[in-house]
């Protein structure tokens, strides 16, 4: 008689609180996948141009990136629930206020409110990763939870725009912003009211003004994440430009969706892979694979090969992110774990913004393949940054 070993995903989802924490985190984070499209549609409906729309969306994104570590530090020193709920209330109110402002006649007011909405964004993602060790059993389940976390976050950027379009179709362009407020508040309340989030307390350790940034290895990991984000941002612009160059601009959305599906499938499969002895080595390997996956895009011509490569290029990302989550958990200074995960998000976001900006410039100035070359080089540089040992020797 043989026994069947349960899959790690099944084991995790059957654990108490896991399904609620994961699903509520995804719902609460949907506004980050909704905001850019909602702001663009809202500005255009008032007769504003894309420059204004892009500026307001950028202000929101920069505010999220800058203020995330600050909220993470406050949470590390106190509790999760008060800051998560307070942030969701303020961010939701800012989204509603934004929907009532005319961005063309009052751009400064619109910009200020967009900054407030971004600054107050609840740090659900770092809080969830801090809780994984409390709601799972053993290192194997923790790593599988990281992989599931990395895989499912692709749903935010697939479902977020769909929710915006549905709300706008039903009730007009302002409804996209109001939907972001409602969804974000509902998901955050659902997460913050869970027992593990209510019970969590910060660590009473000696505080340092630099927080997690006093760890040189952690800073080096954040630099690698900037390069990783740059690669993904350049890929996004390159795919969009290539689809437009083929005379099918509408296909860009499908190509990016295929990339997200590839990441989701890879992340789910990765939950079955054993715990790495050296997460820094696995991260470096994942980034090498990402660079090699981007390289054929320089020569891809036609939607079919582009679609296949878009799917394949999504596969290394969950492996790289899962390894990064594990590294942060192992090398973050005591009492700085939430802030460390927030810095990780900020690093990736800064890199993504830089990648999209640089890729857009080289597409206009040179050609589309150069954007894919930029993605390849950025992924390779990220791998090089992680080749030197990131883990202390005792971690082996």
Automatic annotation (TrEMBL):
InterPro entries assigned to the protein according to its UniProt record, in alphabetical order: MFS (IPR011701), MFS_dom (IPR020846), MFS_trans_sf (IPR036259)
GO molecular function: transmembrane transporter activity
Protein name: Major facilitator superfamily MFS_1
Pfam families according to UniProt: MFS_1
Ranges that cross the membrane: 21-44, 50-71, 83-101, 177-197, 218-239, 251-271, 283-300, 306-329, 341-363, 369-387
Alphabetical keyword list: Membrane, Transmembrane, Transmembrane helix
Cellular compartments annotated: Cell membrane
Positions of the Major facilitator superfamily (MFS) profile domain: 164-396
Record keyword Cell division present: no
Membrane-protein topology: Multi-pass membrane protein
GO CC list: plasma membrane
